[in-house]
Amino acid sequence: MAKSSERRDRGTAAELLHFCELFDTGLVRIRPIDLGEGVAMKRLAFRWIFGVLLGMLGASLAQAGHRLDEAPRFIGLVNEAQGPAVVLLPGAALEGAAYMGLAYAIIKEQPQASVFIVKFSHNFPNPIEAKAGTEAVLASLEARGWSEPEASTYVMGHSLGGIFAQPLVKQLNLGGIVLLGSYLPRTLVLSDGMTLDKFPKPILLLAGELDGLTPLHFVARDYRDALQVAEGEVQNHAHLTLVLHGVNHSGFADGRPLADDLTAEVGPSMAHSRMAAVITQFMAANGAGNFAAGTGHLLDDLSRETAKILTPLLAAEALDEGICTDLQGAIAGLVGGSAPLAIQAERYNNFFKFVRSKPTIAGIESQRISVPYYVEMPPNILDVSRHQSLAPATIACKMKSRAAVAEALELTPPHDKAPSCGELARGTAERAWSLLTPEQRQRVVAAGSKLSFATQEHNNGIGWVSAFFKFKASDDPKIWLVTSQQLSTGLTSVFPGTQGMQYCKTVAPSRLVEWYLREALR
Length: 522
What we know:
Helix 4 crosses helix 9 (about 270-285) and helix 13 packs across helix 16. With about 525 residues, the protein is α/β, with parallel strands linked by helices. Strands 1-2-4-3-5-6-7-8 form an 8-stranded mixed beta sheet, with helices on both faces. Strands 9, 10, 11, 12, 13, 14, 15 and 16 form an 8-stranded mixed beta sheet that branches. The longest helix is centred in the middle third of the chain and has 36 residues, at about 295-330. Helices cover about 40% and strands about 20% of the residues. It folds into 3 domains: about 1-65, no CATH class; about 65-295, Alpha/Beta hydrolase fold, catalytic domain (Rossmann fold, 3-Layer(aba) Sandwich), CATH 3.40.50; about 320-520, no CATH class. The protein is built from 16 helices and 16 strands. About 45% of the residues are buried.
């Protein structure tokens, strides 16, 4: 293919180069020909169209000093100058050709680079073909006379491709890794449980702000680790987590809509140009091959922008630990007394010990309330990001009622009624809302999504313990129901030790911020 491409005349090559640029910007849009409802027929048409485009691109690359090299295990845009190499592992259900726009942007940003896209059977990333494809690229480079290409080769994986890219760095002793719309899973099977700050080679996690498949709360988890080796908001250039404004999951490929993804605010061409600049600066900062030394200003600026985008999630996580203390204070609602009301929340990690626990009031002099609480995390053994939350599924707080606090401290309770668990959850949502940036709030308002709060009352402890806190979409997908579980007892309860209680299973602030940044935007 490369030889026939090189035989084309230079005028035609220039025209085709212009066409490829228009294709990447979206000004020219070619979609699979609908030859029927059969998926196989549509895929065949898709391959045919991109095969034509690859041939056209090959002619343009010849002028730029690159050669289009198609092998059984990869497609390569090769520069014989022996510069650094990038091996790209596509995401699930995405054609390798969908990444040609990004590959082209990288070599435009750094002409010495070569970019290789690994092929997967049925477009499904897997560790066997990921390793075999990367090894084939290294063997190809060695055959061209490149000495020890591993050191200047970075593996780059999108989505699921990023998950399988991680072990290759250690197995093949590669120069580093770039994760696109991916993350470091907390599972020994896929990543040895390695966190970003302890990753043995340079690592860049490049995320999209509007990624609906690898959402920001998974990105924030790795960002928190990156801060362990950072200096303030400016991260260490060898351990980076950066978020691109307005980019969604498909923006790392060709921008075609993907199920469950959010709507991008940035087109593919602009997104690819920004990605290419970040990737090449990251590699330059870590001495990859012949890249010219970069100043790193873009990395530092993007570090600061990333901090603004992710701070609401980190701040909400900090609120989670004190939520029961805040709710008990709202329930007490007392003014006056000989000393400030002291509320101490005690977290139980053992569910059965939590079930047996009870809130207590120490006495008039100390005015201390002890509040047991339990954090229920959502099950996610494989640490999958799609449709998954990292926030608590619910936080169960065992608190004393307003009347019980007033009686124990010999104070007159306020005349207004104590808030229900549902009303307390509404107040938590308002606090979570205040953490968002103005732009994040504007997106939620524009999407028209709303929360509706309710309280489900129980008359016994067994019913409350076994009940599930509910946070789900209603029949109207734009309205989500937040149903708190409540158990209330009076001061004259006949069961010993159960007088004057208000138990709530409530929503975590971090879960609300997750919702504002993902589900509310659908």
